[in-house]
Amino acid sequence: MDEKNRIETLSGIKIFTGNSNRALVEKVCDYLSIPLGNATVKRFPDGEIDVKVEEDVRGADIFIIQPTCPPVNDSLTELLILIDCFKRASSARITAVLPYYGYARKDRKDEGRVPITAKLVANLITKAGADRLLTMDLHAAQIQGFFDIPVDHLLAFPVISDYYRKKDLSDFVVVSPDVGGIKIARLYSNHLHMRLAVVDKRRYGPEEIEVGFVIGDVEGRNAIIIDDLIATGGSICQAAKVLKEKGAKDIYVAATHPVLCGTAAEKLNEAPIKEIAVTDTIPLSEDVKKSLGSKIKVLSVSSLLGEAIKRIHTNTSISSMFTEQ
Ligand code: R5P
After folding, report:
1. Cis preceding-peptide flag for 71 (omega within 30 of 0)
2. How far is the CA of 105 from the centre of ligand 1 (A)?
3. Which of 71, 208, 228, 286 is deepest in the core (most CB within 10 A)?
4. How confident is the model at residue 5 (pLDDT cuts 50, 70, 90)?
5. CA distance readout (Å), 163 to 24, 159, 293, 299
């Protein structure tokens, strides 16, 4: 498709956001060569969220890009209010774009009297009026099934694997920090032609983790631990420690979503980790940037998101973005 046709096809598309990650949204708009939609998302004096869309959106194909990252409840509520606003303004279609889907870890009843908050969030997004969901590296892929609207689930894999492919990585092993991450770690190991190892992690609470043994040979090899997110840093730091104990050399970490809450940055600094690569689905706080300095590299997923948005708008395949690698 030539440039003129592309711009004509994209003419009905509009991108909006709240306050959770404006820098990422601006990059997505740059990729699509369209301006960011004009909306004010501010606070009433009592803290309630006040939204006003400042341009005509009747009949438009709306994409609201809003990762539901910390402050999670504010980010989520802004998203829900924005969806409601566009529905009432007669937009033709609303796609909720959550580069990071918060509350994803509460995805099942693993004990009595607990909620399934990932499903509640799916209900809220759908009920508010979203017609589609676009998201990335869900904590569990089956969260897609919590929605009865179309869901496009992207992987940050092309961006992260490309980063490592450009480095000279001889004698490396890809490590999944838990059994649940084997499928995605295998994708990296196949693509980067590296062996695979798995850490046996057991979680007893949000901050209580026990790491036992390592399946696979890591002795004398450098390791890349692949995870979907780093929150408290507990899982990654414990995995790095046990890999060192088993004789691994340099340890690299790649995680899509840098939640990095509490003392995560301090823990990561103290851990035997050479470098941490994350993406910009979640902005890093100034404190985290200062604390981790050059130990953390941020890779942008803006072109992946922009390309997916373009393909949704033009009804073209998204899965081929991952098979064309
Ligand atoms: C767990 O299954 C996830 O993939 C992450 O490993 C985990 O949620 C990270 O949390 P934290 O950094 O708090 O250990």
Report:
1. yes
2. 9
3. 228
4. low
5. 19, 6, 19, 8
Q: Which residue in the list 27, 42, 119, 201 is annotated as catalytic?
A: 201
Q: What does the alpha-carbon distance between residue 209 and residue 262 come to, in Å, rounded to a whole number?
A: 16
Is 127 an annotated catalytic residue? no
How close is the Cα of 33 to the center of ligand 1, in Å?
36
Kindly state the average pLDDT of the residues 103-111.
95
Question: What is the fold of 157-299?
Answer: Rossmann fold (3.40.50)
Compare 202 and 155 and report the one with higher pLDDT: 155
* Whether the Cβ atoms of residue 32 and residue 66 lie closer than 8 Å to each other: no
Tell me: pLDDT of 1 over 90. no
Pairing of strands 172-176, 208-215: unpaired
State which ligand 1 atom lies nearest to the alpha carbon of 231. Answer: 12
Model confidence over 190-220: pLDDT tens digits?
999 999 999 987 777 777 777 778 999 999 9
